[in-house]
Please model this.
Amino acid sequence: MTPTAAWRDLAAGGAVLLDGFHALKHAVRFGADVPLALTADRNAALALADDLAPDLADRLGALLTPVAPDELAALVPRPHPTGVAALARPAPRTPAPGARPVVVLENPRHLGNIGAVVRLVAGTGAAGVLTTGTVDPWHPAVLRAAAGLHWATAVGRVAGPEALPPGPLYALDPAGTDLRETALPPGALLAFGSERSGLSAELKARATALVSLPMREGVSSYNLATSVAMTLYHWLAAAPR
Model:
């Protein structure tokens, strides 16, 4: 079977796009099942591996299949500058309750923001990301923004607030107590609404507490990923090292 035919079969079977070298690197490092990886310039891709991921150089070398640039361009929406694209089998899962917080995104709409949040959660070591609503957190644009780090944490979707895992729920809301005055307990669920509509009344009614981010008067909101970053930093700063 040609690489093009194999790609189309895997995509039709639900495999998700890893767009670029960095997404492939992270996915492989954290245990993704990657049945096919293509490169329009194998030598350049292997040089990147030697430079940026020497621990994975042999594995990536075994994975990468060379194809012509026009062949790769026909398979992806927008060829990545690194000339690398791969397909991986998604692994959605609900974060397990534990000591680390779970980030909850209620009905998020911006795919890039969701991916940025996944990247933040993976980097800080939080337990995972849960979304509600219709947007798939494993969408290719989310994976692109997350740089393949979905496999470094738990990323899943639930039907709504009633389906969230157990744990104290801290909802970010302008009417809440200043986050700087709040100690986040182990296993907290940290809930964030959209910039346009905020959190639903249903989720706020279930919350253990409403907390707010410090903000200069006259500024209306922060970007969603920025809000998550500030909250996770607050958790990290208080956590034992």
Remarks:
- The mean pLDDT is 93.
- The chain is about 35% helix and 20% strand.
- Residues 56 and 226 are 31 Å apart (CA to CA).
